[in-house]
Amino acid sequence: MKTGIGFAGLILLFAPITLAKDPPDYGKGLLLSMDSASCGYAEKDAKTITGQIIGTDSAHKNTKELLCQEYVMQAEHITYRIRPKDDKHPALLPIGEAVQYRIHKDKMYLRVAEGDGKEREYLVLSMKLREDPKQARLNQ
């Protein structure tokens, strides 16, 4: 009886250790620039239900261009152009600061080392291989 309780205690003691996940590995990068890019249009109708029934609404639409933040982040071997996934409440990142990033499946997760430490999701728009300075000298 005592061995059964001791064995159950050992299982409960070592179960969290064996099931623990390794923390994700982060790469280091540098934010080089931020630009505003057009990412669509917002339309607002002047129509109301009452106006449609009575026939007093005009068919006038207000169209406004939406701008999204696009960042250029330089990693060790690749330069990324990224855009925040959350278009409604994007966080403004400090240019010239070091960041930590990881890529999981088709998404990039970024956090500012000196900031609040929150991990934010970004869409990768483009990737460009950096030219190695040593290799550039050999090609000249």
Spell out the blueprint of helices and strands:
Elements (H helix, E strand, L loop, with lengths): L1 H18 L7 E19 L3 H6 L6 E14 L3 E7 L13 E7 L2 E6 L7 E10 L3 H7 L1
Antiparallel strand pairs: 1-2, 1-4, 2-3, 3-6, 4-5, 5-6
Written description of the protein model:
By secondary structure, this protein is α+β, with helices and mostly antiparallel strands. It has a domain at 22-38 and 71-130. The chain contains 3 helices and 6 strands, in the order H-E-H-E-E-E-E-E-H. It has helices spanning 2-19, 49-54, 133-139, and strands spanning 27-45, 61-74, 78-84, 98-104, 107-112, 120-129. Strands 1-2-3-6-5-4 form a 6-stranded antiparallel beta barrel. The protein is flat. The N and C termini lie far apart (79 Å). Mean pLDDT is 78; it is low at 136-140.
Given helix and strand content, the structural type is alpha+beta
Shape category: flat
Poorly predicted runs of 5 or more residues: 136-140
Oligomer state equals single chain
Beta-strand fraction estimate: over 45%
Main sheet record: 6 strands, antiparallel, barrel
- Topology as H/E string? HEHEEEEEH
Lateral strand order in the biggest sheet? 1-2-3-6-5-4
Give the % helix.
Answer: 10-25%
Computed over alpha carbons, the radius of gyration is 26 Å
Q: Please count the helical segments.
A: 3
Distance between the termini: 79 Å
Mean pLDDT: 78
> How many β-strand stretches?
6
